[in-house]
């Protein structure tokens, strides 16, 4: 279980993915709550028609605003670029806690004891948020796989993969086994690879985040805000003062592993020194 929860979770890391999450939760929530009226929510107030529509829809708007603040503002303030799976699940529960608290303060009966009323609000919010939230995660995953299939150029004879630019246009096709590492260079990425016995590089206009998301299920792994490495091209992992350093095959390059990615790398590479 610990190993499972320590797996990297990168499905809501870039702006597009976050907007899909927020937008889907908002639209799905408005449609679902007004059509199916869960928990007899239409009977909570004596209203009808357009007034009831706006009241019910406000639940979804509040949830979407909280998720937007959580994903864009709080994560930025806390400098959380990526989650591990366990951290993502805890973050989701935290969002539900805040949403349910706000809804309770606005719509709850504050004359009743707080905890029984709040726990009921949390239960309604949890089940009301669970389906759209994780449905959007599934949609993001499917879009990511579609992007991967469009970007990775493969054949039975060559096994080439395609490295795309920011518009999805493949700019470099090569064997995955020949890629050494990828480095961030302002608005570009520098792809370092082996050509026979020579080390070469090429600049492509894209971000490490996009490349990380496209090649999630490959041997290309993010280890630092400025680096993605091919874990099959690591010749040595060195630990100095609790920090990990990766020595790349066929080069004298040493790449640091930042604190945010250390746990993930310890699970990816079992031989990483503890």
Automatic annotation (TrEMBL):
InterPro entries: LytR-like, LytTR_DNA-bd_dom. Keywords: Membrane, Transmembrane, Transmembrane helix. The chain crosses the membrane at residues 20-41, 53-74, 83-107, 122-143. The keyword RNA-binding does not apply. The keyword Membrane applies. Residues 173-271 form the HTH LytTR-type domain. This is LytTR family transcriptional regulator.
């Amino acid at each position: 279980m610990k190993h499972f929860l320590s797996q990297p979770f990168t499905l809501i890391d870039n702006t597009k993915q976050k907007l899909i999450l927020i937008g889907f939760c908002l639209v799905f929530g408005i449609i679902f709550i007004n059509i199916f009226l869960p928990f007899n929510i239409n009977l909570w107030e004596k209203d009808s028609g357009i007034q009831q529509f706006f009241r019910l829809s406000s639940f979804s708007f509040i949830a979407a605003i909280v998720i937007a603040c959580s994903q864009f503002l709080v994560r930025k303030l806390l400098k959380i670029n990526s989650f591990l799976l366990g951290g993502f699940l805890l973050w989701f529960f935290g969002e539900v806690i805040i949403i349910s608290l706000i809804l309770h303060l606005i719509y709850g009966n504050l004359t009743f004891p707080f905890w029984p009323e709040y726990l009921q609000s949390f239960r309604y919010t949890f089940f009301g948020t669970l389906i759209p939230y994780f449905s959007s995660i599934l949609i993001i995953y499917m879009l990511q796989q579609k992007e991967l299939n469009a970007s990775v150029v493969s054949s039975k004879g060559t096994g080439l993969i395609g490295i795309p630019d920011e518009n999805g246009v493949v700019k470099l096709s090569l064997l995955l086994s020949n890629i050494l590492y990828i480095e961030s260079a302002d608005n570009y990425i520098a792809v370092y690879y082996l050509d026979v016995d020579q080390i070469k590089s090429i600049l492509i206009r894209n971000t490490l985040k996009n490349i990380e998301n496209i090649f999630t299920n490959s041997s290309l792994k993010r280890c630092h805000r400025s680096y993605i490495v091919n874990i099959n091209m690591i010749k040595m992992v060195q630990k100095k003062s609790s920090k990990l350093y990766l020595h790349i095959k066929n080069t004298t390059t040493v790449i640091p592993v930042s604190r945010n990615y250390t746990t993930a790398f310890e699970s990816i590479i079992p031989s990483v020194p503890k």
